[in-house]
Design a protein that fits this description.
- It is built from 14 helices and 10 strands.
- The chain has about 325 residues and is of the alpha/beta class.
- Helix 11 crosses helix 14.
- The relative contact order is 0.14.
- Bound molecules: adenosine-5'-triphosphate and magnesium ion.
- The site of magnesium ion has 5 residues, from helix 2.
């Protein structure tokens, strides 16, 4: 399987590394089809998009006609010899009426259908990234249902259909989880060896790997941010505080819970935790709430450890990365 090229940071190119188990899962999808649309969620920057792009490449090698759409970034990749597919994707992506994202999201499903029906393709994969913001969170369920329809009532007989969605939108999980239309599948940050491979690619003076591991918890985006900040942890933390709007008011309001949660995120799992706080932490992509059973079949790639308080991982709730936790800790300290 060819490993695609990716950009980790300005001037730092890498091929897709690690994630061997995830790639084996793609092979399984190619062979057996996805019974339900697979909806992948996980910490921001953990590598969902990179994986989807690598999966698109792999499925292409398996003889699939593949449509990959990244709605939020108006980007797409098509592996097919039907020229019209790329042309229509390009049309949608260059739409200037402000509807490009929405158009791309729905076009992906339409094209998959047409590849089966009009062009008689027998193996079709549709991979969609960050579509839920585009179609609206309240329509996330319906969107996934349209993918399920494709699998369950295809316009023609087929050999394989693969439908995968990735989202970093914490709140869509609840909307999709209400229906039994999808296989909600979490993906975690990279395992240690994977992160180390990326760390080795970064040029210049750098702190020992152990430190990079402890701050990022395996999150490649956070690794890149540390690198770009000249390994100034404080700078990255202050940026996170800003991005996540960790105001003094927020810290004051929820101090009692947050102080417990920075020590052990499972404190947020207790029955008396205000729902509003949980929703806020999810919406801001600070924690992943309700971590699944660690049985590997529930996860894309390898599941995280059962509990690792140093990395901020609890059995049921986890900080997205140690840096996310540190931003909250800092907000508490400053208030
Ligand atoms: N397996 C990998 N090999 C090499 N680089 C990777 C890998 N996974 C992720 N990256 C790089 O790490 C960065 C973050 O990954 P990516 O954008 O895929 O994460 P994401 O989970 O989609 O994030 P977001 O939540 O922001 O959508 C990117 O620069 C990406 O190229
Ligand atoms: Mg992404």
């Amino acid at each position: 399987m060819r490993r695609i090229a990716l950009k980790l940071a300005p001037g730092v190119e890498t091929e897709f590394v690690d994630r061997d188990r995830a790639l084996a899962q793609v092979v399984e999808w190619a062979e057996k089809s996805t019974r339900f649309p697979v909806v992948i969620f996980g910490p921001e920057g953990c590598g969902k998009s990179a994986f989807l792009r690598q999966a698109a490449e792999a499925l292409g090698e398996f003889g699939y006609d593949v449509v990959y759409v990244d709605a939020a970034h108006r980007d797409f990749v098509a592996y097919t010899d039907v020229a019209e597919v790329a042309r229509r994707l390009l049309d949608a992506a260059s739409d200037v009426s402000g509807l490009a994202q929405l158009k791309l999201a729905y076009l992906a499903v339409d094209l998959a259908k047409e590849l089966l029906e009009r062009w008689g393709r027998r193996r079709v994969a549709v991979l969609v990234d960050e579509v839920f913001q585009a179609v609206g969170l309240d329509k996330a369920g319906i969107y996934v249902k349209s993918l399920l329809n494709l699998i369950e009532y295809p316009p023609r007989s087929y050999e394989g259909i693969v439908a995968v969605v990735a989202t970093s939108e914490g709140l869509t999980r609840a909307e999709i989880g209400r229906h039994r239309w999808a296989e909600l599948t979490p993906m975690w940050n990279m395992p240690r060896e994977g992160l180390q491979q990326l760390y080795e690619k970064l040029p210049g003076l750098k702190p020992p790997f152990e430190e990079a591991w402890r701050w990022t918890g395996g999150n490649p985006e956070m690794l890149a941010r540390l690198y770009k900040a000249g390994w100034d942890v404080e700078e990255v933390v202050l940026h996170l505080m800003q991005n996540k709007k960790l105001s003094a008011e927020f810290a004051r309001r929820w101090r009692r819970w947050l102080e417990l949660a920075v020590e052990d995120p499972d404190a947020l799992w207790a029955g008396d935790v205000p729902e509003e706080l949980v929703r806020e932490l999810e919406a801001r992509n600070l924690v992943v709430y309700n971590m699944y059973d660690r049985r590997p079949s529930f996860w894309v790639d390898r599941p995280p450890p059962e509990r690792d308080l140093e990395l901020g991982i609890g059995r049921n709730v986890a900080w997205q990365t140690p840096l996310h936790r540190e931003a909250v800790r800092r907000a508490l300290r400053e208030t």
